[in-house]
Design brief:
The chain folds into 3 domains: 90 residues, no CATH class; 66 residues, no CATH class; 95 residues, 3 Solenoid (Pectate Lyase C-like), CATH 2.160.20.80. The chain is 33% helix and 0% strand. It contains 8 helices and no strands. α3 crosses α4, α4 packs antiparallel against α5 and α5 runs antiparallel to α7. It binds iron/sulfur cluster. Iron/sulfur cluster (SF4) binds next to loops.
Length: 292
């Protein structure tokens, strides 16, 4: 596989699979993964569902999903996609669920209904903070020591401080302003890592786009709508995929190792196969198991 011309020796690049830095990144993100065993099914109660391709029914916010069992386990866990709950199959709280549960000393919304609104509000804010930490830790991993790295480190510190707040403080956080600050810094990191050149398709409508075999190295696709896009065998190394809607996109054979700001929910929502290469720390979804 050829290298992009601007991939000079000093250009920060993701390390080889299995490298020490990848282990460090995986460790830094360990608490940013959902651990349903330490949560009280907050995501099955707090959000509103709108009947769609992702959810088979309407559900108001704060009302338990009818599939939720009394032991706070999903009654259709092994058949979510087939039963019309693909949205649940791809959802990830980035570890916010277990953190909210700990914040309320393990109390459940069943046992302490007076705290339920506080729990659900904290979940909404902490999920955003944890998702930001997911990206920021990757950013710290990508950029070499220097002013940009210092800015990333500082925002990680700020975010960790906010995430350690009590429920009342969490409720007062201006999440819109915070997300703008994170987004701007990640854009700077992305530009530094991607280098010049590459497609500029941020926010673009790529629904159903035919991009089979496309060279998208160093491209900026953040926020693009790539539902159902044909990305088979595309080369997405150093491609900024932050927030790209990949629902139903075909990633069979695509190169995603070294792709920037990709998350597990994006992979879960897409299709792929055993030939698809992945960034370190992300798992191959079970429904990708068959080569096509
Ligand atoms: S379908 Fe299962 S995972 Fe989805 S909200 Fe209902 S109980 Fe939770």
């Amino acid at each position: 596989m050829t290298q992009a011309p601007h991939e000079a020796r000093d250009t920060p690049r993701p390390p080889a699979p299995g490298g020490r830095r990848e282990l460090d990144l995986a460790e830094a993100r360990r608490e940013l993964r959902a651990d349903c065993g330490r949560c009280v099914a907050l995501c099955c109660v707090a959000p509103m569902f709108v009947a769609s391709a992702d959810f088979a029914l309407d559900k108001p916010a704060g009302v338990p999903c009818p599939n939720l069992r009394g032991d706070d386990r999903c009654g259709i866990h092994t058949e979510l996609r087939g039963r019309g709950f693909a949205g649940c199959a791809v959802f990830d709280c980035f570890g916010a669920g277990q953190r909210v549960t700990a914040l309320f000393d393990g109390a459940t919304w069943r046992e302490a209904p007076e705290d339920a609104a506080g729990m659900f509000g904290a979940l909404e804010v902490l999920r955003q903070l944890h998702e930001a930490l997911w990206y920021l830790r990757e950013a710290a991993h990508l950029v070499p020591r220097g002013p940009l790295h210092d800015l990333v480190d500082a925002l990680i510190g700020t975010t960790e401080g906010l995430a350690a707040s009590d429920a009342a403080t969490l409720a007062d956080i201006d999440t819109a302003s915070y997300r703008r600050e994170v987004g701007d810094l990640l854009a700077d990191v992305s530009a530094a890592v991607r280098g010049p050149g590459g497609r500029r398709w941020a926010g673009k409508d790529l629904v159903g786009a035919r991009l089979r075999g496309a060279d998208l190295r160093g491209a900026e696709l953040r926020g693009a709508y790539a539902l159902g896009a044909d990305l088979r065998d595309a080369d997405l190394r150093r491609c900024d995929l932050l927030g790209v809607d990949l629902r139903g996109a075909d990633l069979a054979g695509a190169r995603l190792d070294g792709a920037l700001f990709l998350t597990q929910p994006q992979l879960e929502a897409a299709r792929g196969d055993r030939r698809t290469t992945l960034p370190a720390g992300l798992a191959r979804p079970g429904h990708w198991s068959v080569d096509r």
